[in-house]
Amino acid sequence: MSQSNIQAVNLKQINAFVQTHARLFLLFAAFALIGAFVFHNLQTASAQTQPKVQTLPPTPFRIGERLTYNVSFANLNNAAYAETYVVSRGRLGDKDAVELRSKIKTNELVSAFYLIDESRTTYAASDSGLPLYIRKMSNEGVTPKETVGNFTVNPTAYNDLLTVIYQARNAGGSGSFNFQEDDKIYNATFLNTGKSEKFKNAAGEFETSVSTVESNFLTENGIKNLTINFSADEARIPVLIRFKTAKGVFRAEIASIQTIEPENSAELPPVAAPSPRPVVTPKPIVTPTPYIENQPLPKELPFELGETLEYQITNGGQLIGLIALQAKERKQYSGQDSLLLTATVTETQPNQQIFKLNDAIRAQVNPESLAPQQIELKLNGALSAFNQQVLFDQRTGAAVSNNGNQMEIPVGTHSILSLAYAIRSFNLKPSKDLTNPVNDTRVAVFLDSKDYVFTLRPATADIINLRGETISAQLISINTGNPAIDQYNLRLWLGNDEKRLPLRLSFGTYRADLVSEKQIAPKQP
Question: Which of 139, 167, 441, 450 has CB atoms 3.0–4.6 Å from 456's, for a disulfide?
Answer without folding.
Answer: 441
